[in-house]
Amino acid sequence: MNIESINTQTIQKEKQPLITILKVLESRYNIKFSYVDAAIKDKKATLPAESLTLETVLDVLKSETNLDFQLLDKRFVAIKKIKPAPITFKLQELEEVIVNNYLTTGITKFNDGSVMIKPEGFGILPGLIEPDVLQTIQALPGVISTDETVSNINIRGGTHDQNLLLWDGIKMYQSGHFFGLISAFSPYTTKRVNVFKNGTSAKHGDAISSVIDIQLPNVLDHKFKAGIGFNLINADAYAKIPLSPKTELQFSTRRSVTDLILTPTYDQYFKRIFQDSDLSNSNQDLNTISKNEQFYFYDIAVKFLYDISKRDKIRFHVLNVNNSLNYLEQSTINDRDEALNSKLLQENRAVGITYIRDWSSTLSTTSQIYVTNYDLDATNFDIINSQRLIQENEVYDGSIKLDVNYQPNSRFKIDGGYQFTEVGISNLEDVNNPPFRSYIKEVMLNHAVYAETGFLSHHAKTNLRLGGRLNYISKFNMFLAEPRLSFSQRFLNNFRFEILGEFKSQTTSQIIDLQNDFLGIEKRRWVLSNNKSEATIINGKVIHPIPVIKSKQLSAGIHYNKNKLLISAEAYIKKVNGITTRSQGFQNQYQFTNATGGYTIKGIDFLLNKQFNNIVSTWLSYSFSSNNYIFESLNDGHTFPNNTDITHALTLAGTYTSNTFKFATGLNWHSGKPTTKPVLEDTPDDNEITYAAPNSSNLSDYLRVDCSATYSFNVTDTVKATVGASVWNILNRKNIINTYYRLDDNNEVNQIDNESLGITPNVSFRVRF
User: Residue 187: inside a domain, yes or no?
Assistant: First the structure.
């Protein structure tokens, strides 16, 4: 009788002697364990699932038995006792896992309401063949992008600039490549991504919607890892290189192939991004054409780890994210050929240094200094009107952070710290005909102190994190207190009740001056709050009030988890004040109106997730919300629907994961976003469109079906490969994601529809060493 056929269903559920587990694994993976009998005596473990790789199985056994499993080659595994380290500072026990493999493998939900994504152990999601960090987040309930981009992620009604995006602790101002269709962060050197929709830690500030915390590996593992891969959009490479027993270099780079080869995927991406821009709106009647467009993107990330001693560690971080577009516009005017080059550059550079000191087994400090710089630069030539427009938006952000962590035992901890931030934002507009130049720069200094305590009861039934953050904005002499709460209570063994709450604020935001800014591709520019009560004129330009944005959020949820069945429901209410009309992207009667106000969103997120034998995972998620603006000077002071008000959103999906083959398919549906239609009795001769009540109509419902599959195999004993294929919008459904209206030369109203991605195939090939 094959030992693999021993009642595995029984021994998977309860711990067995380690020797029994080892015999099963030897048969399953055709390996041989080498050990001293005394090392495994009295050790017990649970049998890992068959779907896991050998490396993952060894990691699981290591955590369960406190033994070291070293894979010497493809055949032999040595088992040794782990020598106790002198520093035992650990926080894991305060982060109790509610559910592993949340939706798919590599996604975990914790008892503080956060969700963690591990790209290295990521399974598969519909439409994705690679673990795109920001695309994966959109699979979570309550997270959606109304225009299918990673540069416009709406979490519980918030705009994208209201999310705090951190890369290894450094704030980022650019999140996407291809102007929003692809995440700007390599998943292959990302250790984990923590997502907080509410109940955020007090150490995080300057964002009212959510926190997306991208973390790179921070511990030396003395193992060389590398990989290269490509798909129909880009090629990439990464490596983790041990340089010495105390140092390690992590490196990743990616570059598009779009300027070298044209693919069906690129054609769909190009059509989607540039459909409503200067690049696609050339005046053909005047023989003006856009041609020879050259578009590419790249990113480079480097992290250097140096363990000075067992107590002292230092880390260096460098990141460069770049998108570049050039295109030639030519025309024949008065029998003379004219040709000029327009361009757009978007770049985010960041550099930082982190010092970690373990003062004792219970006390540690982390200090970080970083500088991040964002630059959006466009030069746009209008040949017909002999005009050249230069626009630039630049952000400089420098910060110093100190975090103190005290944990006397595994169930109690205290965190505190201080953060100083200097942010400078400049905006430039330069026109040659007629001559006009406007350059405005604002600088703000912010100080913040915070403290919070965490408590985990015996048997992990109660988890409480209570804290607060005090911000001081020196420019306005303003203090802002921000309490934070995260509480969860397990009852009846399989149920958990949680309450999350937070006050937050932010001083940076994005606005739209005109929809054709920056060639109509990147319309949003970063600005600082000015806390003005009325408009002023600086350098010939009107400066409108931009308040400090403030939010309050409270949510309550209940979760049931048993036998790989998760049923979860969470209700929330969030109130936001201090937004401006220019930050919301209006394209109706309020497009050129400047007003300040807020919005209130109430909703519920529901999830049903069932897993079968760690191989099949299915889920149904549904979100209902009501999101309304309130601007006292607009709509007679009455509320009206938010531009991101998606009342109903539903996802139905499933994945299959085995040792070598993964498959996923899913359906995404949501009600259409609000829109404003012209009234039928509009007067055609007044050079103005007369609109109905703001956002009183809705676009057609959105529906998309995706699928994806990957297959892994061994090239040699040390080289593994993966091939993948995906189809986005497999039904090729025409989804309208935005509609607006404008007058033509005959004063007739034209309707402009922006479409989502059509059927978009992609294939990939990846090799790991």
Answer: no
* Interatomic CA distance for residues 569 and 222, integer angstroms: 43
* Residue pointed to by tokens 């609000």: 674
Closest by CA position to 431, among listed 378, 503, 361, 367:
378
pLDDT band at 111 (very low <50, low <70, confident <90, very high): confident
pLDDT at residue number 8: 40
Model pLDDT, residue 537? 79
Q: Which residues contact 374 (CB under 8 A, 6 or more apart)?
A: 173, 174, 347, 348, 393, 394, 395, 397, 526
Q: Which domain range does residue 500 map to? A: 225-768
Q: Is residue 639 part of a domain?
A: yes
Q: Are the C-beta atoms of 651 and 606 separated by less than 8 Å?
A: no
- Count up the domains in the chain and report the number: 2
Whether the bond into 694 is cis, omega within 30 of 0? no
Q: What φ, ψ does residue 4 adopt, rounded to 5°?
A: -65, -25
Half-sphere exposure of 403 (CA within 13 A, CB side): 17
Range in 266-275, 301-310, 599-608 with the lowest mean pLDDT: 266-275
What would the two tokens of residue 443 be?
């600088």
Beta carbons of 480 and 548 less than 8 angstroms apart: yes
| Rounded Cα gap, residues 712 and 166, in angstroms | 32
Preceding peptide of 434 cis, ω within 30°? yes
Q: E strands of 563-718, at which residues?
A: 565-580, 596-612, 616-630, 640-641, 648-657, 661-670, 674-675, 697-698, 702-714
Q: Which of 94, 108, 212 is nearest to 163 (CA)?
A: 212
Residue 306, pLDDT > 60, answer yes
**220-276 confidence digits (pLDDT tens):** 988 899 999 999 999 999 999 999 999 999 999 999 998 888 899 999 999 999 888
What three-state secondary structure class fits 272?
helix
- Angle subtended at Cα 212 by Cα 199 and Cα 206, rounded to the nearest 5 degrees: 70
Does 57 map to a domain? Answer: yes
- In the three-class reduction of DSSP (H, G, I as helix; E, B as strand; rest coil), residue 19 is classed as helix
What is the pLDDT confidence band of residue 290, given thresholds at 50, 70 and 90? low
Q: How far apart are CA 505 and CA 479, in angstroms?
A: 11
Residue 638 has a pLDDT of 96
Do 247 and 196 form a contact (C-beta atoms < 8 A)?
Answer: no
More confident residue, 77 or 351: 351
Residue 621, both tokens: 């998620």
> Pick from 60, 73, 63, 61: which is nearest to 30 by CA?
73
**CA–CA gap between residue 469 and residue 207 (Å, rounded):** 13
Q: Which of 704, 701, 702 is nearest to 667 (CA)?
A: 704
- Give the distance, in angstroms, between the CA of residue 446 and the centroid of all CA atoms in the same chain: 25
d(CA 284, CA 278): 12
pLDDT greater than 90 at residue 311: yes
Whole-prediction pTM:
0.86
Domain membership of residue 707 (yes or no) is: yes
Residue indicated by tokens 């999350």: 500
Asked whether the beta carbons of 197 and 109 are under 8 A apart, the reply is no
Q: Which of 63, 83, 103 is the endpoint of a domain?
A: 83
User: Is-contact 761 726, C-beta < 8 A?
Assistant: yes
Q: Residue 47's domain is classified under what CATH number?
A: 3.55.50.30
Domain boundary among 32, 62, 83: 83
Domain with residue 646: its CATH number is: 2.40.170.20
Nearest Cα neighbor of 154 from 576, 666, 766 is 576
Q: Looking at the predicted structure, is the pLDDT value of residue 681 above 90? A: no
How far apart (Å, rounded) are the C-alpha atoms in residues 167 and 169? 5
Distance CA 749, CA 329 (A): 28
CA distance 402 to 449: 10
Q: Is 49 left (phi over 0), alpha (psi -120 to 50) or beta?
A: beta
How does residue 604 score in pLDDT terms, banded at 50, 70 and 90? very high
